[in-house]
UniProtKB/TrEMBL annotation:
GO terms for biological process: carbohydrate catabolic process; cell wall macromolecule catabolic process; peptidoglycan catabolic process. The keyword DNA-binding does not apply. Pfam families: Glyco_hydro_25, PG_binding_1. Residues 222-280 form the Peptidoglycan binding-like domain. Gene3D superfamilies: Glycosidases (3.20.20.80), PGBD-like superfamily/PGBD (1.10.101.10). InterPro entries: GH, Glyco_hydro_25, Glyco_hydro_fam25_subgr, Peptidoglycan-bd-like, PGBD-like_sf, PGBDSf. Keywords: Glycosidase, Hydrolase. This is Putative peptidoglycan binding protein. It comes from Kitasatospora viridis. GO terms for molecular function: lysozyme activity. Belongs to the glycosyl hydrolase 25 family. CDD domains: GH25_muramidase.
Amino acid sequence: MGVYGQDWASYQSATPDTTGLSFAFIKVSQGLTYTNPEWTAQRDHARAAGLVVGYYHYPEMANSWQQEADRFLSLAQPQAGELVCLDWEGYDTANEGVSHADQLGYKQNWLRYVKGRLPHNPVGLYCNTDYWNNVDTTGYVQDFLWIATSGRPAGQPGISANWLFHQYSDSGDMDQDYCNLGSTDALRSWALGFAPPAQPAPPTGPAWPGEDLSLRQPLLHDANVRTWQQRIHDRGWPITVDGWYGPQSKSVCEQFQQDSSAHGWPLTVDGIVGQQTWNATWQRPVS
């Protein structure tokens, strides 16, 4: 059992009824000049309804695929867990003069390029069975196939290829779609699976004690020195954890400051554990 959705363009209102829906694909652009005037309102409406959102571009394949892709990407800017798709069909006057070989080349290049620009979002292909069976020769869809077979039951597109979405009806004033995943959460989890893993927040560590740790006479000896030495030792620096800020501590501090600056965390190299060096000891990623 799958879930249901719709695809929206300017023919639909800015706020279609989302009852019973899990996802919506929204037309953003066509060719090099057209933008769906409703797309941002439709996007906000779909997000507010908790739908998984996808965006698609309709090509005019006599144009540069890269220019069209760049324009689409400048508009869509999907969030993590949102999908993008090429609506690959060419029955209109803008495409009917483009050879099938060039249409295929457009599809291949557009998908690869957009995936390179959006490595952490699902990128897929929409087409009908005519294009799938008679124009495509590669089976390349990038991350997912959205197949259109008007008049066939939902979830039964009648093709052997792996598909994720099925547009099973384009009658009336709304295209109806089906996803073969079992729930909205399953679809959302699949889409989010392309995002990079969340990076753990850097440890904040204890607050700076309010005094510089430095080489002095008599030598500084206290719990703050020991705390800093323990942390720097845990980071892999060879240092004796004894609470005394002697020549060894100053030398290690200078080395840590130099290394931090070399790794994009600039510190003054002075051998003094001031507030910036203290905080970096805990917050800078271990290199």
